[in-house]
Amino acid sequence: MNGLEGVRISKDPEAFITALTQLDRLNMMPEELDTLDENVVTHPSTRKRIAAIARVSNLSPDHVSDLVASVRSRETVEGYELPAVVEAAAAGTSPLFNSTLKRQISLRFTFAYMFVLGGMPVLCLHLASLWPNAATQWAAYVGGALLSVATVLLVLDCAGGKLQVRLGPKLRARLLSTSKGPPPEPVFVGVGPHSEPRLYEGCHNWDLGFLEIQTGRLRYTGEQTTFALLPRQISKIQLGHGPPRWLKTNRIYIEWVDSGASAAGHLSFCCAGSRSLWVASRANTQLIDRLQTWLTQPEASHTSGNDAGEQSAPLPPTATVTSKSPYEPESSFQFLLSLALGAFLAFMISSMLTEGKWNLTTRLFAAAWAAGLHMMANVPAWRGCRKSIGS
Question: Structural domain of residue 35, as residue ranges?
Answer without folding.
Answer: 2-72
